[in-house]
Amino acid sequence: MKAIYSIISLLSVPALMATAQAADVPAALAGYDFPTGNQAKLGYAINPAFTKEFIAMQTKVVEKLQTLSSEKIQAFMEKYDPAMLIPYDPELWESNDAYNEYKKEWNKTQMQGQAQVAISLRTAGEGTWRFFAVTADASGRELPVTISALTYNPINNTWSSAHGELTPTEFKATDDFIFKAQSGTEWKLEKQDSFVKTVQSLRITKSTDGKSVFVAFASVERDRTTNQTLSQQGYTLLFPVQQAQMNIGKPGSK
Q: Residue 62: phi, psi to the nearest 5?
């Protein structure tokens, strides 16, 4: 099998250029410069890298939050999104100036690359599509990325997982978002039975400057009785637009 490490090694030499058949890509997935067929492009799984100053400020915010009543803490947590800048609250900051310093440090947050990932779009039969996305462990062994298990139906504009259908909504974010301003589509599933609540989402967006594409996936299962997390995973992948593409052959080929 052609492992991802062999693809990564090609970064030091001219990459094989190819033209993706953009006209064949479903409308909701077009415009993101995803390669098709046997072509793939490289990107990274990313995490936010906060400044030391922001971490210190965030610690103070948490300490201040813990002094509030349980009702106020619960109300805060119901609205809290770690991927968004916390709005100003006079009970958490001493002044607008203190909050503006907090916001300034938030805006300095960088994107830190973790594992390298290769991605392409491929037909999956009966008019459906899938991502073919792989990464590699330290030994160079090829590992599939979990979004590869999702199937896209262009007629309904839905993704399917083992838990059911993820349905679409428009997604827009300003510079207050952790990875800055971007827009696209988020597909989401929420379901529950007597024992477990499951929430899954797949978000595909492009930065407002048109230079980067983000693919974010999250999946959480919680026990409905105890609210204990039974399983959880999430990641954001970053890919450049109009990057040279590499021929990786068919999955499983030698």
A: -65, -45
d(CA 244, CA 153): 28
Spell 20-41 as b/e; 16+ CB within 10 A means b.
Answer: beeeebeebbeebbbbbbbbbb
Calpha distance 131→154 (Å, rounded): 13
CB 47 within 8 A of CB 114: yes
Report which of 43, 5, 20 is spatially closest to residue 123, judged by C-alpha positions. 20
Could you give the C-alpha distances from 41 to 17, 92, 105, 145, 179, in angstroms and in order? 10, 44, 32, 14, 21
Run of H or E residues at 49: strand 39-49
Each residue's pLDDT tens digit, 21-71: 444 899 999 999 999 988 899 999 999 999 999 999 999 999 999 999 999
Three-state SS at 30: coil
Nearest to 213 by CA among 170, 171, 235, 182: 182
Spatial contact of 119 and 41, defined as CB atoms under 8 Å apart: yes
Coil/strand/helix, residue 23: helix
* DSSP, res 51: -
**pLDDT tens for each residue of 180-193:** 999 999 999 999 88
Q: How far apart are the first and last CA of the chain?
A: 5
